[in-house]
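Page 42, continued from yesterday. The earlier attempt failed because a stray header line got pasted into the input along with the sequence. Redoing it now with the clean sequence only.
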Amino acid sequence: MAFVTANWNPLGEAFYRKTELYEMGWNLKDGLRDCLLAAAPYGGPIGKSELTISLFKKIYIHIFITSSCIFLSLQWKSGVVRQLGWTVCDDLLCIQEDGTVLIYDLFGSFKRHFSMGNEVGQSQVVEAKVFHSPYGTGVAIVTGASRFTLATNIDDLKLRRLPEVPGLQGAPTCWAVLTQDRQSKVLVANGGDLFILDYTACTAVNPPGLSPQASSIVHMCVSFSYKYLALFTDSGHVWMGSANLKEKLSEVETKVRNPPKQMAWCRRPKSRQPSVVIMWDRHLLVVGEGKDTISYHLEDDSILVPEMDGVRIINGTNHELLQEVPASCEEIFKIASMAPGALLLEAHKEYEKESQKADEYLREIKEQGLLAEAVRQCVEAAGHEQEAETQKTLLRAASFGKCFLSNFPPELFVIMCRDLRVLNAVRDYTVGIPLTHTQFKQMTVQVLIDRLVYRKLYPLAIEICRYLKTPEYQGVSRVLKHWACCKVQQKEESDEVIARTISLKLGEAAGISYSEIATKAYECGRTELAIKLLEFEPRSGEQVPLLLKMKRSQLALSKAIESGDTDLVYTVVTYLKNEMNRGDFFMTLRNQPVALSLYRQFCKHQEQDTLKDLFNQDDDHQELGNFYVKASYKEKRLEARVAHLQSAVDEYNKAKNEFAAKTTEEEMRLLRFQKKLEEEKGESLVGFSLHDTLRTLLAVGLHKHAEQLYKDFKVPDKRFWWLKLTALAEKEDWEELEKFAKSKKSPIGYLPFVEVCVKHHNKYEAKKYVSRVTPEQKVKAHLAVGDMEGAADAAIERRNEGEISTILSRCSPTTDRALVERLNRAKSTAAKK
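This time it went through. C-alpha cells are written below.
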C-alpha cells in the first residue's frame, strides 16, 4: 500500500500509471522487430507471425493468451500475410497480399475464407486494417493502385470500392477507418492534404487549428469509441480533436519530428482530458492538453493495443497496462488527500493498530456527512486496482465504514466483491484475460462466459456461473452444452464411452437440447454416437428431424408414433414416401399400424388412387368395394359409373359380403332403368335414389313406369302407397286418387287419404274416404273434415272417454250447447262403467 503511487505520473489535471500485467516468456532473439503481431481488445488473445530460419525458411503463426502461454503454433503454407487481426468472436484473420482473408479459430482450425475483390490480386494489398464497428468486424485495404476497398461486416460480406483520392500515387502517408453516422469511412492523408472517403465521394477536409508549421500528416489514430482523432505532423505536433474534424481539443509539440511507429488514445470513458500515447523505437510519450508530457523508456520493441480505458503495451518481456488513474483511486491515494475515502482508509488502518486516531478520522468524516461517500469511493477504487491485496485493503475499509451507517445499501459492496472475485480468477496467469472492471461491465458476464467457453475453460466458466447464480439456461447448462459439443469431436474415445460420459455429466440440467449435441456428432461423422445421444432427448419433435437427416427413417417413424403427435407422424410418412419406392413404402407402413391408419386417412382426402393401391396390397376386398362405390359417385358417364359398381360387386363377393353385393347390384339396375327412361321419356333421373326416382315418376304422371319400378325393385307397399298418394294430391288429380283408393285395399289405411285431401284444402274429397276409415281412426277422420256430430257419434259408440274429451275441447259452449250436454252425459256413462 505504501507504494501505490510509486508508478504515478502527472499530466495536466490527471495522473497516469503503467501497471505490469504479466511477464512474457517468449524468448525471442530479435524481439518483435520482424514479427507481425495483433492482439484482440478486452484482454483478448495475441496472434504472432514470425519467420523461423533453420535448414529451411519457415513461417509460423502462433496464438497466445495475453500471459504468453501458447495455444498453438501453425506452420503457414499459404500466401504472404500483410496483416493479422481478430474478430469480435476471437477468430484470427490473416490478410494476404493477394486480397484473400483466411479465418482461423482460437485453436488454429481453418473456418473459411473470402476475397477482398478480384482486382486486388493484380495490384496486391499494400496495407490492411481490421476494425470493429456496431455492425461487427470489418476489413479495409489499400492496394498498390492506391484504391481502397472496405468490408464493414465480414459475416455479411458486402465489398465497397471507395472513390479515388486526388493526386495519390502509391500508398498514402497514413490512413484510418472511422465509423460515423452509422457508416464506415476512411480518412486518408496524402502529404498535407486530408480526405474522407465514403461509398460515394471523396471529400477534402481541414482540421481546425492545425499548426501552420505542419506540411504533412505522417500518422493518425482513432479512439476506441471512434469519437476522437489524433494527427501527428512532420513538425512534431500532435493535433487532437473530434473524429468529425469539427472541434479541436488540444495540440501539443512533442519536439520529435520522426514519424512514430504507433499511436493510440489513452482516455477513460468519462475523462475530460484528451490524451494520446505515441511510440517510437524504445520510446513512449503520453501527451495531453498542456505542454506537459510523460516519457517512458521501452526495453524492447513493443506494440500498443488500444482499450476503452487505456492502452496495453506488449513486448518480448512484459505485458503492461497504461491508463489514466481513476478519479476514486486518485482521491484516496493522492499524497495529502483529505477526500472522504482517504480518511476512511486511514481510519481503518488506525483501527487495525487499535489506535484512538481511528475515532478521530471517523468523527471528521461524519461531521462532514460524507461517510456514505467515503464507503462508495473505497468500493469503487477497489474495482480499479489490479493487486488483490490493495483490493482487500480498500474493501475492508469500506466494510468498516458501513458498520457506522444504518441505511447504506449493501448491493454496491456485494456486487463489487463478486465482480473482483471473477476478475481475479480470469486475470490469473494460466487464464490470461486481463480485464479491467470498466471493461468487464461493458463486456457483461454473458460475453465473458462465452470467451471462457471458446477457450475450452469449462470448469472455470461453470464455477463463475454458479458463483454469480446465473440462471441455468444462460449459465451452467449453456456451458455444459458447449462442452458436450466439443466432447463428441474427440475421436480417441468410443461412442459408448462418450455418450455415457455426456449423460452422466449433463444429468437433468435445464435447457440442454441433446438433439443439438447429436447434430454436432453427426456433422463430425459419428452417426452411431448421434443416435445414442438422441436416446436422452425427451422431445420427439427434436429427435425425428435429425433421424431423418441421418437416413434412419424406420427409427424416426417409431419415435414419431411413440410421441403420439400425428403431425410428426405425417411428417415422417411424407418423407418416407418421397425417399422410398412404392413397394418398400407400403411394406414399411404395413409394419406400423398407427402410421398406416393415419396415412389412409390422409389418402381418403388427398390421394384416392394411393388408397386403392393400399387396399390392393393388403387384399382388403371390403374396403376396395367401398372405394369403388365412392368412386362411382364422382363419375359423370353412366358406363364408367356402372363399371365402378360392377367392380365393387366383385370385391364384395370376394369379401363374402352378400348384402353389400346385392345392394350394389340393385343400384346398377336402377342406373340402367334411369338411363332407359331418359332415352324413352326424356326424363333425366340418372343418379337419383330409388325413393327420389319413384316420387319423380309419380309426380310427372309416369304411373306405369313407377308401377314397374315398384314391382321390379320390390319396393315396400307402404312406401309406394305413400309416394303415390302424395304425388296425386300435389297434382290435385282427385279422380285418379279415388281410382287408386279403390284399386285394392290400402296397406296404409284411409286416414292418410283424408289428411292429404284436407291438407290440400279439399274437404269434399276427404269426406269420401271417412266411411272407409277403421273404427279406431273414425274420430280423427271426422274431426279432420270438421264433422263434430260425426266425431261425437263415433266416440259415443266406442264409449272412449279420451276421444270424448278431445271433442269437448274443440266444442264452443255457446254454439254447440246441445252437443256438449250430449257428450257430457256420454262421458259420465263411460266413467261409471
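Notes: The longest helix spans residues 658-681.
Reminder to self: strip header lines before submitting.
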